[in-house]
Amino acid sequence: MIAAVFLLAALQPAVSPIENEIVVIGRRLNSISAMVGKDQKGRFTCSLDKSSGNINLDKRLCKTTVRCIRDGAIGDSAIKTCVDAEKPKLLAKLRRELKGSRE
Questions:
Q1: Largest Cα–Cα distance of the chain, in whole Å?
Q2: Backbone angles phi, psi at 34, to 5 degrees
Q3: Would you state the pLDDT for residue 36?
Q4: CA distances from 100 to 18, 81, 82, 96, 103 (A)
Q5: Which among 34, 52, 72, 93 is placed 20 to 30 Å from 28, CA to CA?
Q6: How far apart, in whole angstroms, are the C-alpha atoms of residue 13 and residue 29?
Q7: What is the DSSP code string of the chain?
Q8: For 31, left (φ over 0), alpha (ψ -120 to 50), or beta?
Q9: Sign of torsion over alpha carbons 25, 30, 32, 38
Q10: What is the CA radius of gyration of the chain?
Q11: SS3 for 62?
């Protein structure tokens, strides 16, 4: 029985440290709220209630949220739906950047 457990463990594909990091950041990303407003000149401003741990991803999350609003998402539910649809793309870009920086 113990040998079977070790055999199964050996057959499992190894998860890279980058993939582990993406999973952790993805979980954090799902718990972040963005607050968007406009300054006195009518420019959009964005702030996050916490960080994903990656400043570039945080910036992209704000840009994505603003883009959703500019594209017509009105109300929290519509904005959330729009942003959630873009999160896989944000994480894919982060994954490429992390792989590139560690090669």
A1: 69
A2: -105, 135
A3: 96
A4: 11, 30, 28, 6, 6
A5: 72
A6: 25
A7: -HHHHHHHHHHSPPPPHHHHHHHHHHHHHTT--EEEEE-TTS-EEEEESS--S-HHHHHHHHHHHHHHHHTT--SHHHHHHHHHHHHHHHHHHHHHHHHHHT-
A8: alpha
A9: positive
A10: 18
A11: helix
Contact predicate 39/47, CB 8 Å? no
Report pLDDT for 5: 46
pLDDT tens digits for range 4-63: 545 555 555 566 888 999 999 999 999 999 999 999 999 999 999 999 999 999 999 999
Structure tokens at 51: 């960080």
Give the position of tokens 């739906």: 81
Q: Which helix (H) or strand (E) holds 37?
A: strand 34-38
Token pair of 94 as six digits: 């982060």
